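[step 3/7] fold_predict: job queued, chain A
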Amino acid sequence: MGMLERFADIIKANVNDLLDRAEDPAKMVDQYLRDLAESLAEVKEETAGVMAEEARCARAVSENRAEVEKYEGLARRALQAGNEDDARTFLAKKQKLEAAGEGLAAAAAAAHENAEKMRAMHDKLVSDIEELRGRREAIKAKVAVAKTQDKVNRVSSAGDGAAAAMSAFDRMEAKADEMLDRSNAMSELDAEPIDAAAALEEKYAAAGATAAVDDELARLKEEMGL
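[step 4/7] structure written:
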């Protein structure tokens, strides 16, 4: 696995681990930022190494070109001096340097490409961390609102329970009233029926008793001279 793929996997693993353990997003977002900061430190170190390799390769290419130019210059001077054999020797050396230069140029191109990728990864990671830091407070605020909403929901549930209890008490009270009405009705039904003739007899008997008392009172008053 290449270096770039390894760091991509590290960052992806951090995200997946966060999602797996995200019981409290407010806490996990801080942990995720700490994990990203650690990954950023590794990326910085590796990026610096890749950039150093890029610089070394570029320097080797530059030095190779300088050597090629040097031996071509020596070959020219040898020809000017009439030393063709020396010129051949210098040109042979130049050709070897040019062949080596092709390999150095290829290595430098690869090093440059790797450095560009590492710089891009580094810059994106820095940008992502800054963005997440900006979103952290919003995430925490949403979590706080969600927790408050949960409390409100629990209180609302308790209110619903109280309303249900009130309804149940209303039904029980209605049932008690029904039982009382039924009991009163049974009492009325169990009472002795009224005898109309007996009631009238008592009425007239009472009237007769009153008349007898009045007669007795008149007699006493007459005897006493009152």
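[step 5/7] annotate
Residues 3-159 form one domain.
The mean pLDDT is 78.
exit 0
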